[in-house]
Write a structure and sequence with these properties.
347 residues; mainly alpha; disordered N terminus
Length: 347
Amino acid sequence: MTTTPPLPTAEVADASTAALAARAEERRLRRGLSPRTAFLLRRLGRLVISLAVVVVASFLLMYLVPGDPVRAALGQSATPQLVEATRAQLGLDRPMWEQFLRFVGGLFTGDLGVSVRLQRPVADVIAQRFPTTLLLAVLAFAIAVVCALPAGIGAAALARSGRRRGLSITLSGVLGILIAVPSFLVAVALIALFAVQLGWLPAAGWGTPADAVLPVIALAVGPLAYLVRIVQVEMIAVLDTTYMTTARAKRLPRRLIHLRHALPNIVTASLTVGGMTLAGLTAATVLIETVFAIPGLGMIMVSSVGAKDYPMVQGIVIVYALIVLGVNLVVDVILATIDPRSSITEG
């Protein structure tokens, strides 16, 4: 009795991918949608569902967390009449379902409510402080990406060559430590060294370029180490492929092999991680702004949580969620443009 030899793993994977693509294409043809349109609709649908979950969770925050936000904002010496008047002014005396409908309706018009503590529209406070937070995140992201690519490529070449093994192991250990250390601990160490001991840079404040140096570095250190690690691993995998062996056999210059042939093949993984890094950096500014007394969204959010200013917390949480979901959507679209198979093979 003869048996059919099994297909090689690569052929099985290709056959499976082709079958998934065929089924996905058949479903799209039945719906009358192009692959790109179907992909965008799926991503937009996921974004809307995720944002709806965030909106409901942020609204329920006011009812799940103990304490009266109005009493906390006015102080214990406020009269009951003043507390009730303030609660009625903010609409907190209405039924829960009516408050929720009013809250959701305000989101479509940009009305995020009124801060209990500041007595100002939440949207105005966010618009005033958001540019500072965005600037911190973008500067840290730019530094991480610009430094990670050459460092990751160099680390991959060093690890693959087998020379200076001690240096390669030390570099891997340092990267692991930097990835694990929280950003606020890095911030404290930078303040202790460059502000307190050396006196080169200010320890807090915002308004001059010098004020941004330490916070941006504190934000960038962790993502930089993580991106270097990702670029290193991806570059080593690419350098071990058959076509890279062929390129080396042709005695092409090492710089040409790394930059022109290997670098484009690590863009997909680097872009995916980079998008998540940018979204994470925006959220990480909460602690950094508090440590360096920077007037951004993070600092106002921390003070609002302490004061039980839930309308302000709700608005900032929704803004952060929009940033994270929006960045992920943009990254997905870019990846689908670079590699259309990622959008075709999805169900």
